[in-house]
Amino acid sequence: MGKSIVIILLALSTALLHAQDSLCVYKTKPGILLNDNGNKRPLSKGDYISAKSSIYMSTSSEVMLINSQGEAFNIKNAGTYSYKNILKYKALDDQKSLTSKYFKLIWDELLKRNSNKTIIGGVFRGDVLIESPMDSTKIASSKITFRWKTEADASKYFVFIRAKDSETVYKFATNGNEFIVYKDNPIFSDNIEFEWSVSPSEFPSLKNIPFFTFTLIDRSEYEALKSSYSDLIKDLKAVGLTSTEIEDALCETYGICKN
Questions:
Q1: Which domain covers residue 235, as residue numbers?
Q2: Residue 141: left (phi > 0), alpha (psi -120 to 50), or beta?
Q3: In a domain, 60, yes or no
Q4: Which of 1, 13, 34, 114 is most buried, with most CB under 10 Å away?
């Protein structure tokens, strides 16, 4: 067990050191190529641009990148851009502190995703299937959509939902990686705080699988919570994100979800 933890920490440390002198793709559009030491391929969200890499845009398009300090860079015109060239295209001249913190969170999340490791509460748990709603999410919607990662050898999944601090667990069987329950379902009638999990096993030990919490809120509470991120929203609008993309960003990063 001790050796496993050391290996995990070394892998994460190596990835972190490698990524510190890099840029990470936050948002991109089709038609942009990454040239990584002579190997060319389409650019994707989460790709790293190192000092030896470059990107090529054949036509006017758009790519946005971030660094580990939470700075954002935006390129929209056709051309070839080296790592040093990209650093000349800061997306925001007067970037807000909250925006820097947001991009740092995104950087850490993309770094964790690329390392293929999941850490909950400081403890290595292996691969957690849950994608959304993530832990401590607040949801203002008439329906709750549960999503998870699939496993190659699993054809059916079991979703477990319970009111927080309750002994009663509702179990649903489904195929694929998504399950929808509407807010008027009787299981949501007496509480607003719930926990959920998913497993390919029909009868897992509920004490040994992770449960994530979510709270049901109304639209007025959602708007009030959203208003506390007004500086971030202004900056994200300034760098070209749509209203839908901004709402998705608030949901994915801060757990304030409208849909």
A1: 220-257
A2: beta
A3: yes
A4: 34
The Cα 66–Cα 70 span in angstroms is 6
Domain shared by 200 and 252, yes or no: no
| Residue at a domain's end among 82, 115, 148 | 115
Q: Which two tokens stand for residue 253?
A: 């990063």
The closest alpha carbon to 77, from 93, 88, 66, belongs to 88
SS3 171: strand
Other CB atoms closer than 10 Å to residue 172's CB: what's the count? Answer: 14
In the chain, the largest separation of any two C-alpha atoms, in whole Å, equals 60
Instruction: Assign residue 200 the CATH number of its domain.
Output: 2.60.40.10
State how many domains the chain has. 3
Specify the pTM.
Answer: 0.80
- Tell whether 71 and 157 lie within a shared domain: no
What are the residues whose beta carbons fall under 8 Å from the beta carbon of 19, sequence distance 6 or more? 48, 68, 107, 111
Q: What is the pLDDT along the chain (259 residues), one digit of tens a residue?
A: 454 444 444 444 444 444 557 999 999 988 899 998 888 999 999 999 999 999 999 888 899 999 999 999 999 999 999 999 999 999 999 999 999 999 999 998 888 776 554 433 333 344 689 999 999 999 999 999 999 999 988 999 999 999 998 889 999 999 999 999 999 999 999 899 999 999 999 999 999 999 999 999 999 999 999 999 999 999 999 999 999 999 999 999 999 999 7
Query: Which residues have CB under 8 Å from 20's CB, separation 6+?
Result: 68
Q: Give the C-alpha separation, 125 to 119, whole Å.
A: 6
